[in-house]
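User: Run a structure prediction on this.
Assistant: Running it now.
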Amino acid sequence: MPMTNKRWTRIVPVVFLMYTIGYMDRVNIGMAIPAMSKDLGFAATMAGVAAGIFFWGYLVFDVAGGNIALKFGAKRTILTALIVWGLFAILTGFAHSTGELLTSRFLMGLAEGPIWPSSSMLLAQWFPAKERGRAFGLWNLCIPVGAIAAAPLSGWLLAHWSWHVMFVVEGIPAWIWAVMWALLISERPSEARWLPEAEKRYLVTTLEAEQETMTQVPTQNWLDILKNPIVWLLLGSFSFIDMAGYGFSLWLPTALKIGSNLGIQAVGWLTALPWVMSAIGILLVTWSSDRRKERRFHTGVPMILTAIFLFWGVNVNGNVGLEITLFAIVGFFLYMYLPIMFTIPTEVLPQRTAIPAIALIGGVGNLFGGFVGPTLVGFLKSHTHSFIVPFTVLALFAVIAGVLVMVIRPKVTALDVPDRLIAKTGPQTSTTMDLEG
């Protein structure tokens, strides 16, 4: 009897939309920087701080979020985060000073911190390793889709109202989705009444078999995590590529507006173009990675290509059409790494070690990426009065990130679980066969 598609149509879309809302609330400040800078009277360096301070708060509960999710469950952790981050996203719209803006963004970062490790844990509990690349990929489409939605919507709200209204309107959906989350998500297959018993048995047995392959890996404490070279290589790689990603994406609207002299609404539509390309790139790379059972080069090579096209795009000397085209290609490669990179810990470490490791990598990496990246771009732009030097530095970061991830050599992964062992647990899902065919 073939397995159903219910996991793919029930779990993935709900996680995807939850994180889409969060990502919109995270990056919409990039569209508002020109107006906020004028209203609140701060320069480019402070604009970078305002965009990046979110990640100081994010670091605290991202690192703690792995243990929180293991203790209380991913469902409950994310439900609480949705309610609290929605509150601070809305309060950002009521800021009337730089201090109030920085405070609300920092607190929103605290609230969003547990989301990434909790989502990784939830999907790892629902999708075996041979499906996990595509499951993480479909989830991570939230990043380009969130940016695609945020850019034109934010541009329209800014053109017709103000940045205050923009933050309030875009903060409300988190509360709406909290209700949907509570109703639709089950913590694990064994708790899902809507899942057939045969499929429950297949998933439970397969996931247990994967964990058994990890018994030779040290587990259970932070010291083991900090001793693991794979964790450090992933943390370094993610930190550098996240600086490139956030530095590019949060300053792209400003760079396009300065370079083209277009209105803010037109800039919003152009800013969405790289994200459309990014969605296509994520779908292609996750399909290829799962099909070939390969992670390192599917993660690292796109980083190198991101660097090449970013450096080219910022050095086209006033050719706006070519610049936009090259930045769209940057978008195609920019986030290919993300779903693949974060499947690696779940496939080389036991769950009780992998989830805190993901939290550490995500928390520290996002602090460097989300705070240092935008702040460094703002600082360099203030001193060079151009985006050439800042974006060139980001391209260099992308190259370093690619090299770091490609030198990883895991001894064993969940992808090494023999097919004959999984075959004994039940039939393969029709979803897997369809997606691979």
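The chain has one domain: 7-188+220-431.
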